[in-house]
Write a structure and sequence with these properties.
Structural class: alpha/beta
Number of strands: 9
Mean pLDDT: 95
Low-confidence stretches: none
Strand content: 5-15%
Oligomer: single chain
Radius of gyration: 20 Å
Order of helices and strands: EEHEEHHEEHEEHHHEHHHHHHHHH
Amino acid sequence: MTHLSDCPVLVAESNRIGYLTLNRPASLNTLTLPMVCALQRQLEAWAADPTILAVVLRGAGGKAFCAGGDMRALYDSFRAEDGRYLSFFEKEYALDHYLHCYPKPVLALMDGFVLGGGMGLVQGSLLRVISERTRVGMPEVGIGYFPDVGSSYFLSRLPDALGLYLGVTGVHLSPADALYAGLADWYLPSEGFAELERSLDTLSWDVHPRQAIGNLLASFGKRHLAGGELKNLHPAIETHFSLPDIPTIRASLLAEHRPEYRAWAEETVRLLDSRSPLSLCVTLELLQRGRHLSLNDCFALELHLDRQWFAQGDIIEGVRALLVDKDKSPRWNPPTLCEVRPEQVQAFFADFRPGEERVGWGM
């Protein structure tokens, strides 16, 4: 017998609001293929249900909304040659794309870690609320992968070179910095989330649902927070990460002479040097291209890369080193930045044609 608490996605309805709760707290609510399918089915049902006016996304456990996809499961799928890892990306991207276009307001309660696949869910949501426990990021380069789930769309459209910096380095952002970057809309202390949900239970729908929820958030939360680092670093990020390629960015960081940015520049170089050189170069190219692509084409391009990356990229080695053998000593291929050839990077993108592939359920 399956208990409700064993279900990886919990479904509830209250006061004309549908609630979807990611329910794998022991795994930081990382996404699996069955979870993605369950989310899609329920969202489609509520989209067609006139009694449901809005949707809330949340994560169980308090430590994470969602820390990404279950990378160990994807690793095992590739090793088994069963094709499920590609099905996961196809369905996950279709779900994320659907959220971007969802006909009813979606409120994402981003308590705890929001990484990778979690970002794919919340960046497609209309209203994004964070707490003091929230850390957001796209850390894929750390495992020899590239930022996906639509990040070539939402990161590339952040001001100036902020999105390029976040994608290439994979750094996590504090709540203040997430608000500054435009990756969240409202701040609410974690102890206020329960009160917010109680208020949603008594919300009157005498105005448009989007306005009703927005008015409620305005009475609870803040749009800005003091104490972030990103605003002060913005000029330096623009100086270095607006440059055309990773070797030039790295050289520019090494040459940083301004005292207020020197320590950050040195730490950023150390961070880049720990990443997969191929992942860094492909990520920058992906985000630069994403600036000029539609939402659908951004997802399609990421899927185009996925179909090559497990065999030709560094993700299998990255997952092995960090999650399987846990030796934390990945053997990147190629091992150094100077060995990454520009034509090697361009080959991943060569056969992609914008507008030729539709990202959607059942594609």
